[in-house]
């Protein structure tokens, strides 16, 4: 995926869902844990050197798995390259849980599944399609597919 560097910097400065200074270890062998300012903006996880304003990097939180490694550590690994695993160390177990939950909920696929789930429920209860008024009810991306189930297990695989 291609990104415009100026747009990414601009996005990194937007209000965040979560922000904290965490220990972070990259995916390369020999990488050591470094303190980074980590900021969740929409479905991007930006990381900064603690004394700089521009991000060192960003992770697009799509097609990834978020897992709790231990009480204070979680990882983000990408489905197309399971070896590419980033570790984040939190200050408390509660902080770790909040980060995991927020990252899972940040993905487009999680939001899409929620939209489909609630659309189906509203239609079942009212008999009306809530997207019809916006003229987008027939768009393929909002259609329920066979076997689609909303569960916390599905969400953790994003």
Automatic annotation (TrEMBL):
One GO cellular component term: trans-Golgi network
Residue ranges annotated for the PH domain, each copy included: 15-108
Domain of life: Eukaryota
UniProt-listed Pfam families: PH
Gene Ontology biological-process annotations: endosome organization; receptor recycling; retrograde transport, endosome to Golgi
InterPro entries: Boi1/Boi2-like, PH-like_dom_sf, PH_domain
Xref: PANTHER family: PLECKSTRIN HOMOLOGY DOMAIN-CONTAINING FAMILY J MEMBER 1, SESQUIPEDALIAN
Descriptive protein name: Pleckstrin homology domain-containing family J member 1
Naturally occurring in which organism (per UniProt): Hippocampus comes
